[in-house]
Amino acid sequence: MSEHTHPRPILATADFLFRRAMTVLDQVGAVWYLFAEVLRWVALSFTRRKVRLGRPAVISQIVRIGARSVFIISLVSGCVGFILVLQMAPPLDNFGQKDLVANITGVAVLRELGPLIAAIVLTGFAGAAIAAEIGTMVVGEEIEALEAHALNPIRFLVVPRVIAAVISMTLLAVLSDAVAIAAGWVVGVFALGVPSERYIQNTLDQVKLADFLTGIGKATVFGLLIGLIACTNGLRVTGGAAGVGHATTGTVVQSVVAIVIADLAFTAIFYAVGWV
User: Fold this and answer.
1) Is the dihedral of CA 139, 145, 146, 150 positive or negative?
2) Least CB-packed of 129, 164, 262, 269 within 10 Å?
3) CA 155 to CA 258: how far, in whole Å?
4) In the chain, what is the greatest distance between 2 CA atoms, to the nearest angstrom?
5) Average pLDDT, stretch 208-212?
6) For residue 239, how many other CB atoms are within 10 A of its CB?
7) Predicted confidence band at 1 (pLDDT cuts at 50, 70, 90)?
């Protein structure tokens, strides 16, 4: 080994990367375990009469997660619709095809932007709140109190929130699609001068049912990821109030990364099978 070679920085870097990889694998394993438990309780609710998931709890979480996110998701989706049309109009106008903004906007929103915008906004709005709420229960020893009364915390706390996240995300993706396309129509008709009938017809001619369904399928998976990651981080809180803060921050970061990776995987699969 050369006298100028310094193994310590290399070993320290390798050790850091190894620890980070183990942390990621540990988190992924915890999420998968929670997913299996949620599936088990959902299956038991269909096969055993004594096992009920609690419809009022699910509905209250849908209101808390989904209904309260409607305004902010509508606002962000509308702005994205405006931006998308205004950004595409000049280059299309150079080729005399300005009215084709409707075609591009419809496909881009239904396949990609609508579900992705809704998922990212819901992560910051609801995912962090779920992690903080469950984490606070852990710090306050409320989870231990449930277990002391023979009440499974996954059944009574996690399952309703995951189901609510999946349902809310699916419905919010539809709302995001509609608002973004409507905003694009407003800009196209009133700012760019595209005839309303042509804009609507171009949109209907371009988009297909598969575009809508693939976007909704993505949204359902995004909602599942948000709910599982938020609940996992909440249940693993340690260290008091500081731990709750770390869990909240980690939930947002991990959810966004997981959503983008899942979106990439879906896009690659759809491209391979010819659905894009």
Assistant:
1) positive
2) 269
3) 24
4) 76
5) 91
6) 11
7) very low
Provide CB contacts within 8 A for 109, sequence distance 6+. 81, 84, 176, 177, 180, 181, 184
Query: Distance between CA atoms of 131 and 162, rounded to whole angstroms?
Result: 12
- Closest alpha carbon to 119 in 240, 216, 249, 223: 223
CB 237 within 8 A of CB 138: yes
Q: Look at residue 148 in the predicted model and tell me its pLDDT.
A: 86
Between CA 258 and CA 266 the distance in angstroms is: 12
User: What's the length of the chain?
Assistant: 276
Whole-structure pTM value? 0.90
Q: What is the DSSP string of 222-247?
A: HHHHHHHHHHHHHHT--STHHHHHHH
CA distance 99 to 188: 8
Q: Give the pLDDT of residue 73.
A: 94
As given in the structure block, the two tokens for residue 80 are 């994205």
